[in-house]
Amino acid sequence: xxxxxxxxxxxxxxxxxxxxxxxxxxxxxxxxxxxxxxxxxxxxxxxxxxxxxxxxxxxxxxxxxxxxxxxxxxxxxxxxxxxxxxxxxxxxxxxxxxxxxxxxxxxxxxxx
Amino acid sequence: xxxxxxxxxxxxxxxxxxxxxxxxxxxxxxxxxxxxxxxxxxxxxxxxxxxxxxxxxxxxxxxxxxxxxxxxxxxxxxxxxxxxxxxxxxxxxxxxxxxxxxxxxxxxxxxxxx
Lengths: 112, 114
Description:
- The complex is a heterodimer of chains A (112) and B (114).
- With 112 residues, chain A is an all-beta fold.
- Chain A has strands at residues 10-14, 19-24, 32-38, 45-51, 56-58, 62-67, 72-77, 86-93, 100-102, 106-111.
- Chain B has one domain (4-113): Immunoglobulins (Immunoglobulin-like), CATH 2.60.40.
- Chains A and B meet through β3, β4 and β9 of A and β5, β9 and β10 of B.
């Protein structure tokens, strides 16, 4: 479930199941979005991106869905593996502006 | 080579010390970034350099002083820091297209201010 303040939202998923991580973005002018994965002791690692002229994009085992009407982004990870355990951040950008702003993040834990 | 290298990995400093964080990339990127990340929080943008010029300063206190000697190098000079400045400092680089670009991050410098 979700919580605010000092605690990251968390999601626990059984190994082999699919995961869905959600993100609500704040700026209606944002038109480019990225999902990053951050493992303990490492910097954020690029997973997949999407522009606002698309509502779905697929990568290897990952799919990003964008709903501009409700300013919502989701990351679907198929057949989750132990190596998928990490904190996942969505990030938003407005074209013509170099600023990339990160969302709160979700900690994904894969249960063996 | 898609790597952003940051040194040192860990740094402990007193409030009267002066230290520098270093970042290097060899991807030909023309934009470089400093982010600050507190535990269990998302990275927060501090500075952006585009084509070796400071393009964004997110109202960062002057005790943090960035420097971009060339397009491959980015430094962050630290002076008279406070304990609340303890955090993970992340460097990132991007192509420099002025938005709509993925950033590549280093592993960060974990800074502790005593």
